[in-house]
Specification:
single chain; alpha/beta; 7 helices; 7 strands; 35% helix; 19% strand; globular
């Protein structure tokens, strides 16, 4: 899989304005939302791991808000790891000894088959002590009007939203907006806060 995410992949999906999927400004907005929501829930964020971190836009966005956050970037791309210094691993193989306050995983899981994806989610649950920010395209997203197919690569494995909810439910509480609170965090919530 690492070879598929080479320099030309990054040039197409991150470098060119007409085809890039995300910009730094997108991550700035998302980081503001995530950190604000977690502050509202009284979930401290001192350490973050970004699974499939790409160029590291999240690191830049997080450090604009709080430079003291300890950031770990994990990437399957050997090219990106060599260029940016990320930890070289896949979402379904990365299993650190430490726990993180925030786990980020965006548009990664659609590259893994069902077994690999379930393993990746189980691993994320094992090292998440606060919250998971997860974005992954579902079959419904792809078939509907949510995804701009001109600015999105073809997804290898499209699953239903129900499939993901079944995998996440034992470990996380869905807070909306792609944010999932770790059940192990034992944060008290009002009944209508969670979906």
């Amino acid at each position: 899989m690492s070879a598929a995410f080479d320099e030309s992949y990054y040039r197409r999906w991150y470098g060119h304005a007409k085809t890039r999927a995300y910009t730094q400004a997108d991550k700035d907005v998302e980081a503001s939302f995530v950190l604000s929501y977690l502050a509202h829930l009284a979930v401290p964020v001192k350490s973050v791991v970004d699974i499939g971190c790409g160029l590291g836009h999240w690191r830049t966005a997080l450090h604009k808000i709080n430079p003291a956050i300890k950031y770990t970037g994990v990437e399957v791309s050997a090219f990106a790891c060599q260029r940016f210094g990320w930890v070289h691993a896949s979402a379904d193989t990365y299993k650190p000894r430490q726990k993180f306050d925030l786990v980020i995983c965006q548009q990664v899981l659609q590259h893994l088959d069902n077994k690999q994806c379930a393993q990746a989610l189980a691993y994320m649950a094992s090292y998440c002590r606060g919250a998971l920010f997860l974005q992954v395209a579902t079959k419904g997203d792809w078939d509907g009007d949510v995804i701009d197919k001109k600015r999105s690569e073809k997804h290898d494995y499209l699953r239903t939203g129900a499939w993901y909810r079944r995998q996440l439910a034992p470990h996380f509480i869905n807070m909306g907006g792609g944010l999932f609170l770790a059940r192990s965090a034992e944060i008290p919530l009002f009944e209508l806060d969670a979906l």
